Structure of Probable periplasmic serine endoprotease DegP-like:
Amino acid sequence: MRYVYGITSALLVGGTALALVTQSPVGAQVAQNERSEIAKAVPRAGAPESFADLVEQLQPAVVNISTKQEVTLGVRLNPFAGTREPITQEQQGGGSGFLISTDGYIVTNNHVISGGPRGEEVNQVTVTLTNQKEYKARIVGRDVASDLALLKIDATGLPFVKFADGSSARVGDWVIAIGNPLGLGSTVTAGIISAVQRNLGQGGAYDRYIQTDTAINRGNSGGPLFDLNGNVVGINNMLISPVGANIGVNFAIPAEAAIPVINALRSGEKIERGYLGIGIAPVDEDLASALGLPKDRGEFVQRVEEDGAAAKAGLKRGDVVTKVNGKDVTPQQTLSYIVANTKPGTRIPIEVVREGKTMTLTAVVGTRPPESELAGANFDPEDDQALPDDPKGTADQTVQDTLGLAVQTLTSDIARAVGVDAGTKGLVIVAAAGSSDAGRKGLRRGDVIVSANRTPVTSSEALAKVLSDAKKAGRDAVLLEVLRRGGPSAFIAIRLKGN
């Protein structure tokens, strides 16, 4: 279960409530809780007598998921062999899931079957049914943006459940959660829907949740949230708590948001989301005052990517986007949410306020890049970082061990962030060990390596090969061509570690 830690305060006022009774004038409106429809909406008992019959039907389709992952914590020197060996540790995790077909397809959260520092696939997934039968599961597909994953076990004749049709969840509806909290095994809890379409301010295509007071804890992640018809209305995902345990503020991914993703994963299709290519900021009170605009209406354009959909449509820095495809841009209906849920290739009108004047532009929605690529757009050269304990691959390990540097491929967004031409090709330094020759000679985060021994390098693999060739040739150093903001490139000879 994912946690959103927050400190919640409540003001409890004691005392006696004074009831004022007044004569209603002729023709006055009837209070909502006095309307005749109330008698029809609420049965005499006020609640179901029992959920037992429903749970008996649903529980066999809910599964326990356990995972194992070998995680590299660092490296150590073997004094006898003179080699570096990885320090690994087996980590275990898991959560819940539910069968959606009789032949073994299972839905869960992506974070349930992710491990390591960057959310890699775990090495092993085991699924346990309520009859205690265990199966090894394979990961059919996973989607980081929606936090959904699809598993498959080799079995037939299995009990399964279906998603609810459309957006059927209503505030006040009874719901039942079945899962495996705190390692206790199959557990049933009940509550009501507290809110629908809840925006948690995280941005993106899936920042809309069903909020429920149903008791949810660690281990419930990926489990189903059922309505009283036995349909899956949501997938339990996270909770807000100052103590890391349930306090009645829990969130589930709505079924209508999950269905297209699960269908795409099942058919092997690529999941595509809309993208404009702009950096945005909310129009808060101060910004609204400075621009002479209403507060919390629209979003301010901070950055426009070259050759992106927004740039081609004519959007500029300083524009305020107030409406997209006929929908008002508000804190509850953000620009990111509207665009991400628009099919790439769609032509949409965009209403903007520029220098006090309202105008409408037309954009052709682009395709949202992978999350890893988008992270590059937020590269901060001033953010001091240590070398990673767990390099991403063999080439990264070679570069780190030999030069004392962590590097990644330079993108146009990162190039702009570090102050070099957006068309520059090379590797950006993510971190530099102060004890290395590179660190002592002033190389730092944000510097760009253009070439090594006069060979252009645009990947860690390319740089690792140059380093390997240098060692084979008996060289003790490598010549790096380094580019830094505000100046021409310079050649710096860096001594190889271990030589």
